[in-house]
Amino acid sequence: MDTAAPIALWAAAALGAAFVALGVAAAVAPERASRSYGILATTPETRAWAAAAAWRDIAAGAAVIAVACTSPAPTAGLVVFALAVIPLGDMVILARHGVRAPRPFLPHAAGFAAACAVAAVLIAV
């Protein structure tokens, strides 16, 4: 039996758990989490947006965990790759709204890179 697929599936589950953890942290403290993502959640509207993004991250992470636990590696890889659109979209939102400092892009870029790397390995095994 090839050992790469189970290891890659564990990596996908860990990635999903990281997204869930980030989402929970943002749901508990949206103002603090939003600052690290480059958005100031200082109004009811922006706090609501931050909370919605938190729940989106929880759901996406849970989906990755579920697919990693129940699907063949290539299927899980396609799902993880599809969900990599989320941090990519977050970076587009920051850029379109005038954020120019690199720091707010870093968590999104890291999430995008990690998701793409895990997805590529899952699809390849």
Describe, in plain words, how this protein is organized in 3D.
By secondary structure, the chain is mainly alpha-helical. The protein has one domain. The protein has six helices and no strands. The mean pLDDT is 92. The chain crosses the membrane at residues 7-28, 105-124. Keywords: Membrane, Transmembrane, Transmembrane helix. InterPro entries: DUF4267 (IPR025363).
Helices and strands, in order, run as HHHHHH
The biggest sheet amounts to: none
Whole-number count of domains = 1
Query: What is the overall pLDDT average?
Result: 92
- The percentage of residues in β strands lies in under 5%
Number of strands: 0
Taking the alpha carbons of the first and last residues, their distance comes to 12 Å
Topology (elements, then pairings):
Layout: H1 4-28, H2 30-36, H3 44-70, H4 73-83, H5 85-96, H6 106-124
Quick summary:
The protein is mainly alpha-helical and 125 residues long. Helix content is 81%, strand content 0%.
